[in-house]
Structure formats: structure tokens, C-alpha cells
């Protein structure tokens, strides 16, 4: 398995290197879909330039990266292209290893459930075999590395790639079962962009399952493990934040980074829903809607945890998708991360209802984004509504895609336990409805 | 008893009269007419009131020549120095030469406060609001988003002990328009109003029919005498206007006071101790005289102004000889020979600024500074204030002189905070002799909230002029000027040594377009975005709260039952 992976990595590196040398690199770096005020490379360079001038990078409204990025690029600014290529490769390799381990876990669980007779007798075609799961890790690495979104993100040197790497390592650590590393990487991911805190629930559920601890509020071992994990997470978070304080000797980075993410003062257009909404908001309701939109990202966690407590990795996938769609400054790099997981749910293909139209929608919207941006900003023959419309359509496409996968997942689970050929009481073929 | 009381009252009155005489104040008025190289003519009015009273300490209640509105403003808010300029138009340094008193387009206000003031920002807000009321200008729009604290460009022009720059505030409103509404209260502050003296020439319909109009108020403390133990207060009201020879004087280059102002001078202000008209008749060419003035001036004055030796024809309105021949004074100037274009001298320091780039996403501000001195290099302080919605990237700042990079010896940069303070960039740049320096910096245009756009948002947003301050080396050595003896136009800026003179130049203001949202759409946008969020919420709600069921053949709804009833009547099998 290593050889095809190396081949994929080489192809990806070649593509990125070719684009770095071409004139497209400058064009892609300017694109608002790829670079947001939070992770644009231009702003990292600006922050380091301000530091050289002796001014705190957080004294202005340009730089919103964490001190970790300052520290990292203070030494590595010369090799920035290499750094971003390496982060992409690390993400792909981490996802590859994680999905490899996950496949083993899935297969083991499936075997256990078959032996316990939990499955209906006629679901043979739904059972997954190691043969068909063999190439899934490679497909995941391929999906991530050769996804045009990822390539553009890398060529633009958006620090979203670093966030993705940290989340990929977190997923690897969780699936491997190491609570300590999982907590550390989750703390790093939260520190970088705040929203991954919602991944705490699926990680906890997975680790509990792996330790064979039942998820019951009355169970003592449940609370023990939970408290352990929470403590690990909080301690690492506190340590990282204190280290950041000592880097620049001030707490300025907290309002600049987290205050910025939560209060959305910068209305630069991006592929998300926030910017135009707050540009057209009545001043009176601004605070209310900021709170509503931020709560919207976080509040799906508990219901999803209740519904998907047996399937924490799928929960993680849905949660990642929700973060990418509803975060305050989304970019295509965030979209690329959850799209890398599609090969893992290959077996759900037969239950997806709208996959064709949604993939067409996403492709067409991706192509229309730069066109309508050009018409608005450069040609002056369109206005902001055109770009906003494509934003709306793109987000609807993403939302429907994720809920389609969710529907397919739940439907397959139903068929597994109730049988594939459903009949009604009078013997005729039955329809399945969601009621 | 009564007699003693009367004597006491008389003595007191006499005593007070004497005291009043001491704190009365001295008014000097002056008009400088300067023909400009391209045939236009600049008229600079200056009205200077000097008042030997201590506004800060004593509770002054009796104002005579010094206007009460400004005196109370200075006393109540601990103002050390105040400079307000309202300008329409742009002083073209390259064709007109160095401005006698520069000012940026729009409204400029800067003030030094006493160090006893507890909250400088609060005092600044109050001062700008009060001045807004006095001058009928929208100075109340001065707030933290357009106020900066320059560290080096603005030093106090009056006497002062220390210069802690935290007591300085500087703001420019480039969009501010100057009109008759601002001229009228300005004229009202003059001791003689517009009824006598030089101020009779200030007629709005002629003054605003000009290329450049700038009215200013400068209040500063000055030394009362050579020992400088006590301070007096000086109020200068200046008005600079440039008449375009083609529109105002119908194309002919000969002009007169009547042609420019449609009025002539009839007398001096009775309250003025000095009232003079200076006409610049400096010969550009040593041999031939260029101009001829009528009537004959009362005297001729020579001075070195801005590094040039100049000759002025002086008309003293207080001299009895002047109004002997005619009741009114109409200074007329005739050109003896046409002006040679080779005589047009470029000023030693001039600058231009422009914005480049295309589209509404990014852009670049470039400033070109020219040093035309043949062999002397000198440093210039550049102050740029850029509003927060044009996000400057200081790592793209490049300064290029003669093809090579020029590193500034002092750079002070304060990045902007969104909706709170603007960018402040101050640099000390060395200009080599006979060179052009290009300073450019890239910016990104922000999208603002729809309520933050001004009316007519596609007109664009103004970026205020940048300020260039320099000590320009002069060819001719200048002696120290005594403020009381020399003409007013030579004594606004204190000169420290005789080899250079202080110049403050302002570049063009810029007009930059920002991307605009659609202003008719707030309700639609809220509905559509909330619909998308609701689609997600709805789909997830369904998937999370509902479970799959096999569809049971139901009894059927009302419609089905009704259909079955009709079928039974017809005799058809039911659904």
C-alpha cells in the first residue's frame, strides 16, 4: 500500500510545484474564496513585517493568526512553499493511516454484530468486505491531495492547510485510541480556529467505545474517563495559551483572534453566508444575529451526539461539515477537508438520493465564483447580489449533500437491522418513510 | 463724604481705564497681493490680534479686540494652540510656487493642549464641537476614526515648555465644503467685522469664484517681550484666495482690486494699529522690470521670504497721504512685458500623490516628492493618514529614489483599528539633490456595512492630503525676524536658523471607490440567508428526530374518503 501512496504524493507535489512557478500563483492568492482575513498569507507576511517594525501585530486589524503561526513562520518564512506542501502531505498521510485503522475497527465491529445476530438475514449485499475496503485509505489520500480546492489552498499558502493538518492528526490520534495525543491535538485545533471544540463530543464517544465503556450517565467508569479526557484537553489548552502569552508578553491575541472569529467585524466577501448578512444588517439587531449565527455552529453537537452515539466517526464527519459551512470565515480549504472523507462512505452510494444534481451544483458554483467576482469587482457590470447568490447556492448544495449522506447512513442502518426487502403486513412491497 | 466717594469712584475708573489700556490688544491687518508665475494672482489677508492677557490663569471677563467665543474656548478647555483651516481647491505648488500658508483640501483642525488637561480626547471632542458651532462647519464629524496623534510632523508654533506629542491632536475632513456660511462667522470674529479696513474686500460672490480659497484661524501663545517671562495670546485670521486670470479677470493679465473683489479700499479699520497692502513686485529678471503698480506706493519694502529676495510695494492705509488724491484705493497692476516661460521657477520642494490599480479589491497609493535644489539634499517628514477601510500593507511600502531603494531614517506606523482609528504613517525621508522620490504602499478595500456609506456611495471616499514638512535650504541667508516689526506674511513659522526656511506642503486628497452592497436588499438578504440556515436546520431536525418506518396503509385522508363515497355512488371499486 505504501507505493501507490507515494505515487499519489509525488503527483500532488508536482502539481503544486508547477503551479507555484506559474503566473497563476499570484492570481490564486488574491482569490477571496481561498484566502480569508483569518488565513491569508499576505496577512501573515504583514504581521511579521509589523513585528520587525517593533509594533505588535495585534495592534492593527490586519493580523488574526495565533502566536503559534508567528513563531512558526518567523523561522520558516523563506521556505513557506515547502512548509505548505509538507503540511498537505502530512494531512494526507495522517488521513490515510487513520482510515486504515478505522477500516479495521469497522470490520471488527461488523463481525461482532453478525455473530451476535443483530443483522437481518437478507442483508448480505450490504455487508462490507475487506476486499472492497482495501483501497479506501488510498482514495481518501487521493481525494484530499488532488482536490482542486486543496491545491488552490496550498498554492495560495493559506494557513487553513495547517489547521487541516492539526485536525487530521487529531483524527489519527483519536482513531488509534490515544486519549492524550487526541486531547493535545484537539486543544491545538481549538486554539487555531476555535470551532473544532465541537469535535470533542465525537472524539470522546469514539474513545469510550474503544475502551468498551458503556455510555450511560450512571456508569462510574464513563464519568471517570470523561473527566480524564476533559482534564487533558483543558490542561493542554491552558498550556498552549500561556505559551502564546509568553511569546509576545501580552494577551492582545485573544481579542484579535477569538474576538475576531466570534464578532465578525470584517465583512470581506467569502464563500460563507455571514458577510452579506452582516453588511445588510440593521445595526440594532447586529449583536443578536451574531449570537444566533455562532450558536448555530455549536448547537448541532448534542443532538447529533444523541443520535449518532454508536457511529462517532460519521458524527465527526458531519460535525466537520457543519463547521466548514457555518464558520465565520469559511474557505475552500475547509470544504476540502470533509470532502476527503467521501470515499469512506462509498458504500452509501446506492442510498444517496440527489448526488448527481448536488455534485453538478457544487461544480458549477465553484466555476461561477471567480466569474461573478470579476464581474462585480473588476468589470463593474454586476453587483454584490450576483456573488451573494452563488454563495447561497453553494451553501445550499453543501448542506443538502451532507444531509443526503446522513439520510443514506441512517437508511442503511435501518436496512441492516430490519432487512433489505421490506414487506408490509399484507405482503406487498413497502415504502420507507421518515416519520 | 459724598465728594470722597466720588473721588474714589473716579480714581477706580481711571485705574481700570489704565488697566484696560494694557490688556486692550493690538490689531494689525495686512493684505499681500502676489502675482503667480502662470498669470493668476494670490491674495493673502491676515488679521492679527495680539492680546497681553493670560487666558489660562486669570478669569478674563472683558474682551475687546480678541473675540469672546475663541477666548472662552481656549480658557475653558485648556487649549495651548489651535489651528483651523477650511479650504476649497488645491494649491498647485508646481505652477504657483510654495504656498504662503498651506492648508489641505477640506477642513483641517489641529490643537495642542495644556498638560494640565486630564482627558485630552474629551477636550478635543468638545473643542471640535464648539468650533463646529462657531464656524457653521461640520467639524462635529471629527471623531476617533479621523483623528491621529502625529509624533514629529506638527510641532507647536507658539512658545511652549515641552512637546509631549500625546497632547497633540490632528484631524482632517477632506469631504468638507467651504461656502458663504463659513465665511460669514469668520468675518464676524474680526474686530471691525466687514465694515471697515481690508475686510470690506471680502465679498462672498467674488471670493468663491476662484481657484483656491482657504480661510484659517490660528491661535497661539507668544512671548510678550524678549525675556519671554509672560505670554501673550495671538490670534491670526488668514484668508488666501487665488484668482484665475481667465475666469475672473476676463483673460487679460492686468488686474486691479476692483476687478478681483468688485470693491476698493476706502479706509483702514479704526481699531487697527497697522493696516497695509503689500504688492509683490519682485523682478524675476534682474534687468527688466516686470510689473507696474498704480497708484504710487507709500513705500517699498524688501524682504527675504522663503529663500527668495523679494520686493514689495507697500500701501499704508493709515498714512494720510494715501487717500489724498481719491477717496478710494484701487491698486492696479500692469504687466510691462509678457512673461517669459523660462522665468518660471519650479519650487525646491513639491509633491504629487495618486492612487493606482484597477478594480475594487486592491490599489496602491503613490506619492512622488521632487527635490529640485541643484546641489543640496534635505530630509522631509511625510505624514499620511489613511482611513481604516483602506487596509494598508506596510510590508509593501517601497521608497525608490533614482532607481535605488531609499530607507527612511525614522518610521512611525500605527495600524488602523476597524471603526476606531485610522492608519498613521510618519516617515523621515532623505531627498537627494535634484531627484524624484516615489513612495508607494498597497492597500485592500474593505466592504462596509450598508449604514456606513455616505450619501451617493459611488462618488467614493476621500483620503485626506498627506503632509510634507521640511526645512528647505535657502540660497540667500535669512536673518531672524522680529514678529512685531516685520510684515505678517513673514512671521507665521518661526525659523530657527538663517539658512533654511520651514515649508509645510499638502498633497492632493484622493478619491477612492469601495465595493458597495446593494442598498435596497436588507430585508431580502435577511430572509434568504435565514432560509438557507433553516434548510439546514430543517433537514437535520428531520433526520435527528424522526425514524424510519414502513409505510402502513392508512385509512386515508379526508380527500380519499370523499373520493370513495363518490365511487360507491357511481358503482366503481373504491381506492
Automatic annotation (TrEMBL), chain A:
Residues 1-17 form the signal peptide. GO terms for biological process: attachment of GPI anchor to protein; GPI anchor biosynthetic process. The keyword DNA-binding does not apply. It comes from the Eukaryota. The chain crosses the membrane at residues 68-99, 166-187, 193-209, 230-251, 257-278, 285-306, 351-373, 385-407. It is a multi-pass membrane protein. It is found in: Endoplasmic reticulum membrane. PANTHER family: GPI TRANSAMIDASE COMPONENT PIG-U, PHOSPHATIDYLINOSITOL GLYCAN ANCHOR BIOSYNTHESIS CLASS U PROTEIN. Belongs to the PIGU family. This is PIGU protein.
TrEMBL record, chain B:
The keyword Iron does not apply. The keyword Signal applies. GO terms for cellular component: GPI-anchor transamidase complex. Keywords: Signal. Residues 1-17 form the signal peptide. InterPro entries: PIG-T (IPR007245). One of its GO terms (biological process) is attachment of GPI anchor to protein. This is PIGT transamidase. It comes from Penelope pileata. The lineage of its organism: Eukaryota, Metazoa, Chordata, Craniata, Vertebrata.
Amino acid at each position: 500500500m505504501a507505493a501507490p501512496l507515494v505515487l499519489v504524493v509525488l503527483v500532488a507535489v508536482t502539481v503544486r510545484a508547477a503551479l507555484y512557478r506559474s503566473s497563476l500563483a499570484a492570481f490564486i492568492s488574491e482569490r477571496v474564496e481561498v484566502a480569508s482575513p483569518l488565513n491569508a498569507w499576505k496577512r501573515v507576511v504583514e504581521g511579521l513585517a509589523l513585528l520587525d517594525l517593533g509594533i505588535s501585530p495585534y495592534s492593527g486589524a490586519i493580523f488574526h493568526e495565533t502566536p503559534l503561526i508567528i513563531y512558526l513562520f518567523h523561522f520558516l518564512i523563506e521556505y513557506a512553499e515547502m512548509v505548505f506542501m509538507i503540511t498537505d502531505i502530512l494531512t494526507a498521510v495522517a488521513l490515510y493511516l487513520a482510515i486504515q485503522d478505522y477500516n479495521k475497527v469497522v470490520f471488527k465491529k461488523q463481525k461482532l454484530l453478525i455473530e451476535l445476530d443483530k443483522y437481518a438475514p437478507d442483508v448480505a449485499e450490504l455487508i462490507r468486505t475487506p476486499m472492497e475496503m482495501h483501497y479506501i485509505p488510498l482514495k481518501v489520500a487521493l481525494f484530499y491531495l488532488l482536490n482542486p480546492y486543496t491545491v488552490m489552498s496550498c498554492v495560495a499558502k493559506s494557513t487553513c492547510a495547517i489547521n487541516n493538518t492539526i485536525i487530521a492528526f487529531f483524527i489519527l490520534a483519536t482513531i488509534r485510541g490515544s486519549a492524550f495525543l487526541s486531547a493535545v491535538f484537539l486543544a491545538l485545533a481549538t486554539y487555531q480556529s476555535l470551532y473544532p471544540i465541537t469535535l470533542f463530543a465525537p472524539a470522546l464517544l469514539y474513545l469510550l467505545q474503544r475502551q468498551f465503556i458503556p455510555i450511560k450517565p450512571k456508569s462510574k467508569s464513563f464519568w471517570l474517563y470523561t473527566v480524564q479526557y476533559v482534564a487533558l484537553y483543558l490542561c493542554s489548552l491552558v498550556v498552549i495559551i500561556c505559551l502564546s502569552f509568553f511569546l509576545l508578553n501580552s494577551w492582545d491575541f485573544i481579542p484579535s483572534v477569538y474576538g475576531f472569529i466570534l464578532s465578525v467585524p470584517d465583512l470581506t466577501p467569502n464563500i460563507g453566508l455571514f458577510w452579506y448578512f452582516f453588511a445588510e444588517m440593521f445595526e440594532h439587531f447586529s449583536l443578536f444575529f451574531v449570537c444566533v449565527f455562532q450558536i448555530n455552529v455549536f448547537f448541532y453537537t448534542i443532538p447529533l451526539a444523541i443520535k449518532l452515539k454508536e457511529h462517532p466517526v460519521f458524527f465527526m464527519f458531519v460535525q466537520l461539515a457543519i463547521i466548514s459551512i457555518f464558520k465565520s470565515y469559511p474557505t475552500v480549504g475547509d470544504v476540502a477537508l470533509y470532502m476527503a472523507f467521501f470515499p469512506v462512505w462509498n458504500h452509501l452510494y446506492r442510498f444517496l438520493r440527489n448526488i448527481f444534481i448536488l455534485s453538478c451544483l457544487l461544480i458549477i458554483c465553484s466555476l461561477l465564483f471567480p466569474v461573478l467576482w470579476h464581474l462585480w469587482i473588476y468589470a463593474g457590470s454586476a453587483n454584490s447580489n450576483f456573488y451573494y447568490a452563488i454563495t447561497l447556492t453553494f451553501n445550499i448544495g453543501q448542506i443538502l449533500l451532507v444531509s443526503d449522506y446522513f439520510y443514506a447512513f441512517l437508511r442503511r442502518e435501518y436496512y441492516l437491522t430490519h432487512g433489505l426487502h421490506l414487506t408490509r403486513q399484507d405482503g406487498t412491497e413497502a415504502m420507507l418513510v421518515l416519520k | 463724604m459724598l465728594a470722597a466717594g466720588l473721588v474714589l469712584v473716579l480714581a477706580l475708573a481711571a485705574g481700570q481705564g489704565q488697566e484696560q489700556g494694557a490688556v486692550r490688544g493690538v490689531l494689525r491687518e495686512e493684505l499681500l497681493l502676489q502675482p503667480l508665475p502662470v498669470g493668476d494672482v494670490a491674495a493673502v489677508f491676515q488679521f492679527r490680534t495680539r492680546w497681553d492677557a493670560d487666558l489660562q490663569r486669570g478669569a478674563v471677563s472683558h474682551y475687546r479686540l480678541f473675540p469672546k467665543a475663541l477666548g472662552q474656548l481656549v480658557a475653558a478647555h485648556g487649549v495651548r494652540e489651535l489651528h483651523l483651516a477650511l479650504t476649497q481647491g488645491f494649491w498647485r505648488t508646481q505652477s504657483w510656487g510654495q504656498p504662503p500658508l498651506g492648508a489641505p483640501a477640506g477642513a483641517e483642525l489641529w490643537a495642542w493642549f495644556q498638560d494640565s488637561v486630564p482627558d485630552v480626547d474629551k477636550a478635543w471632542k468638545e473643542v471640535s464641537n464648539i468650533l463646529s458651532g462657531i464656524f457653521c462647519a461640520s467639524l462635529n464629524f471629527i471623531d476617533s476614526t479621523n483623528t491621529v496623534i502625529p509624533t514629529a510632523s506638527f510641532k507647536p508654533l507658539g512658545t511652549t515648555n515641552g512637546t509631549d506629542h500625546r497632547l497633540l491632536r490632528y484631524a482632517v475632513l477632506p469631504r468638507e465644503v467651504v461656502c458663504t456660511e463659513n465665511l460669514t462667522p469668520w468675518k464676524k470674529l474680526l474686530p471691525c467685522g466687514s465694515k471697515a479696513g481690508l475686510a470690506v474686500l471680502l465679498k462672498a460672490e467674488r471670493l468663491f469664484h476662484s481657484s483656491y480659497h482657504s480661510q484659517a484661524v490660528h491661535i497661539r501663545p507668544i512671548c510678550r517681550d524678549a525675556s519671554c517671562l509672560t505670554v501673550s495670546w495671538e490670534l491670526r485670521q488668514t484668508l488666501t484666495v487665488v484668482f484665475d486670470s481667465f475666469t475672473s479677470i476676463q483673460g487679460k493679465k492686468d488686474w486691479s482690486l476692483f476687478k478681483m473683489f468688485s470693491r476698493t479700499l476706502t479706509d483702514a479699520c479704526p481699531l487697527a494699529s497697522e493696516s497695509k497692502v503689500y504688492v509683490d513686485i519682485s523682478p524675476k529678471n534682474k534687468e527688466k522690470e516686470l510689473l507696474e503698480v498704480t497708484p504710487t506706493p507709500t513705500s517699498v519694502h524688501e524682504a527675504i521670504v522663503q529663500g527668495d529676495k523679494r520686493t514689495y510695494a507697500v500701501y499704508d492705509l493709515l498714512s494720510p497721504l494715501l487717500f489724498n488724491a481719491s477717496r478710494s484705493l484701487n491698486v492696479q497692476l500692469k504687466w510691462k512685458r509678457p512673461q517669459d516661460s523660462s522665468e518660471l521657477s519650479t519650487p525646491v520642494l513639491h509633491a504629487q500623490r495618486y492612487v493606482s490599480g484597477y478594480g475594487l479589491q486592491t490599489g496602491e497609493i503613490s506619492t512622488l516628492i521632487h527635490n529640485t535644489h541643484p546641489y543640496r539634499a534635505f530630509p522631509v517628514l511625510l505624514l499620511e493618514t489613511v482611513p481604516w477601510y483602506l487596509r494598508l500593507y506596510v510590508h509593501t511600502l517601497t521608497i525608490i529614489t533614482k532607481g535605488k531603494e531609499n530607507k527612511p531614517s525614522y518610521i512611525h506606523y500605527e495600524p488602523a483599528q476597524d471603526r476606531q482609528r485610522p492608519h498613521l504613517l510618519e516617515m523621515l525621508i532623505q531627498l537627494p539633490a535634484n531627484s524624484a522620490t516615489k513612495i508607494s504602499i498597497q492597500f485592500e478595500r474593505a466592504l462596509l456595512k450598508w449604514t456606513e456609506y455616505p450619501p451617493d456611495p459611488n462618488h467614493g471616499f476621500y483620503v485626506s492630503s498627506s503632509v510634507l514638512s521640511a526645512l528647505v535650504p535657502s540660497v540667500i541667508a535669512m536673518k531672524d525676524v522680529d514678529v512685531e516689526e516685520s510684515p505678517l506674511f513673514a512671521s507665521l513659522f518661526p525659523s530657527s536658523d538663517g539658512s533654511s526656511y520651514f515649508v509645510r506642503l499638502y498633497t492632493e486628497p484622493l478619491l477612492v471607490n469601495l465595493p458597495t452592497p446593494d442598498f435596497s436588499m436588507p430585508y431580502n438578504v435577511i430572509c434568504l440567508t435565514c432560509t438557507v440556515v433553516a434548510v439546514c436546520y430543517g433537514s437535520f431536525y428531520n433526520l435527528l428526530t424522526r425514524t424510519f418506518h414502513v409505510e402502513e396503509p392508512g385509512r386515508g385522508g379526508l380527500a380519499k374518503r370523499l373520493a370513495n363515497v363518490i365511487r360507491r355512488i357511481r358503482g366503481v371499486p373504491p381506492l
